[in-house]
Design brief:
Elements lengths: L1 H40 L3 H15 L3 H12 L3 H25 L3 H9 L4 H31 L12 H10 L2 H44 L1
Helix pairs in contact: 1-4, 1-6, 2-4, 3-4, 4-6, 5-6, 6-8, 7-8
């Protein structure tokens, strides 16, 4: 185990970097897209339900099947992998963004407006801080899920840690398999820890905002 990583550490680091970039790019684009979609459908219940059903249905498609479906359209490589990961992430992200804003009491918006805050300032300084814990929870789940599904991306020539794992499986190399599993699991746990800390801090801030609003209401 140690001799393998000491010899091939540069190649393994390149795979880890590829995996990180694949996850980061997919989650970033997914999050921006989900914000846009959520803003468009937020006040339209029927459209919201239809959009969520669509993305939940996409999420239920096995990853290999979705990658295989996209190959004739986009070819092999990172574009196919990122597109598939973006599609998978929308179900988590849109639902968490909508749930975050739906959790805000209408009285909170009334108080912010009564204080003279415009729509933008009310959204930025009041609504987003209150909705952020639920939004970050969805982002955490989507990120960890993306890290796992990105392993399959190596099968469509997109690189990442999946290359190490599947090389080990093809050649019956136990050391490569173990290192692949350890690195993928460690990377996912690290992402979960980082985003979990961020979510916890946002939750503490949201409680502070809620207390301030209760005081002003009284």
């Amino acid at each position: 185990m140690i001799s393998f990583i000491s010899i091939y550490y540069q190649r393994v680091l390149n795979m880890l970097l590829e995996h990180f970039l694949l996850v980061f790019l997919s989650v970033l684009i997914s999050f921006l897209l989900a914000i846009g979609i959520s803003a468009l459908i937020r006040k339209r219940k029927k459209i919201t339900a239809a959009v969520l059903i669509l993305f939940i249905a996409i999420y239920c498609i096995p990853s290999l099947a979705l990658f295989s479906f996209l190959i004739p359209l986009l070819g092999l490589g990172k574009v196919t992998a990122v597109t598939a990961l973006i599609l998978y992430n929308q179900a988590y992200l849109i639902r968490s963004i909508l749930s975050g804003f739906d959790s805000i009491s209408p009285s909170v918006r009334e108080i912010s407006h009564s204080m003279g805050l415009g729509r933008f300032y009310s959204l930025w300084y009041v609504e987003i801080p209150l909705a952020l814990p639920l939004i970050l929870n969805g982002l955490k789940v989507a990120t960890v899920s993306t890290s796992g599904i990105a392993v399959i991306a190596s099968l469509v020539d997109a690189g990442g840690l999946g290359v190490l794992l599947f090389e080990g499986m093809r050649t019956h190399n136990f050391v490569k398999i173990v290192w692949g599993i350890l690195l993928i699991a460690s990377f996912s746990l690290f992402l979960n820890w980082i985003l979990g800390r961020w979510e916890q801090r946002a939750s503490e801030n949201a409680k502070g905002y809620a207390k301030k609003n209760d005081t002003k209401r009284r």
